[in-house]
Model the fold of this input.
Amino acid sequence: MSKQTRERILETSLAMFNALGEPNVTTNHIADELGISPGNLYYHYRNKDDIVERLFARYEARMDQALLVPEGRLPNLEDVWLQLHLVFECMWTFRFLYRDLVDILSRNRKLKQRFARILTRAASSATGVLKGLAEAGILRATADEIRATAENVLLVATFWLNYHAVRGARPEATQEDLTQGIYQVMLLIAPFLRDAERLHLNTLAQAYRR
Amino acid sequence: MSKQTRERILETSLAMFNALGEPNVTTNHIADELGISPGNLYYHYRNKDDIVERLFARYEARMDQALLVPEGRLPNLEDVWLQLHLVFECMWTFRFLYRDLVDILSRNRKLKQRFARILTRAASSATGVLKGLAEAGILRATADEIRATAENVLLVATFWLNYHAVRGARPEATQEDLTQGIYQVMLLIAPFLRDAERLHLNTLAQAYRR
DNA sequence: GTCTATATAGGGATAGAC
DNA sequence: GTCTATCCCTATATAGAC
Done:
């Protein structure tokens, strides 16, 4: 049973963090929800931060995967869609992290460094893809424009869920809200696309107006 | 002395919230810092949330001012710069609010509604300015592009400080970091500007590359 | 592995003296 | 207005029995 309980604690913690926000979930809440004693929980994990770190490791591994860029050929817009879906689904799965990002990272230096590393990887991925699109003639932008746009892509993606939570009335997001975020990112690069692709994208995006 | 203490509590709370994050500052900390007793603090304010609400009211009033759009004439780029400065300085003054935005608003329905109202006003202000720039011939974009861009302007502005904190290594931001955020917003609308203005803006922005 | 019981610490908040 | 003293409650974490 040991391994199962250990795993169940992680899963339940993730679910509760996502539902209520990490600061609002105590180790007692988690134990209660699982129907185990607080002492038992502390047998499996040293403390709450330990649980957060384990969850972060999973997040990190998944995001590293999502940020991989197809090698050996120039990217196209389909690649961008796919990658954005992978990234947004990863963010959604570990959304508790994004909800209280600054606070969580400020309490744990290691996590802050690791998250900064992910952002750096994401920046280089975004820049690489945009450069590839430019090389393929799908997009037209100067190096400066690409750098600035990549930065805004990171920012919008990172905080889309927070923005949505604060802007919208409904408490929980749906798959459709995620897609809306993806469009919001795509519209950052739309102005630099060839006419055909830009018009196509704008048409698609209309379906997701708030 | 009564009025002075009441006011000093607000000022010290704001400073400590900004420096340490609102969740990490207790009423006892505030009283200690002021050199008064916790009981005295509770004489002036019902609870911590009361303090947060008073600070929010000041934030709200100042942001409402910053969001006013010049009436009776079409806007120009100078107006945009000025307004962004006012908005960013307001956000900076009350940055504790933005640091833990989702958590703070989730604990207080009134604040959530009032913040949503501000965002709505900001959206209509941004849209109005962009439309005005289009009308003045400074900018060229479809109604859909304007709407999407206004949304991204809000998002980037709202979370710029968080993004900067999480991305950069240095803990506290400076006036220069604020200016960087303003450029980041300006670069959202750059692709839609007339050639002369776009080139000028891109040149200016280079000085603020990270 | 799991439980019960408990230690410790801290935060929010109030009563009553001055 | 201000302080001291205190209460209540909750959260983290550990010890020791089963």
Chain A touches chain B at residues 21, 23-24, 99-103, 105-106, 112, 115-116, 119, 142, 144-145, 147-149, 151-152, 154-156, 158-160, 162-163, 165-167, 169, 184, 187-188, 190-192, 202, 205-206, 209-210 (CB under 8 Å). The domain at 2-44 of chain A is CATH 1.10.10.60 (Arc Repressor Mutant, subunit A). The first helix of chain A runs from residue 2 to 20.
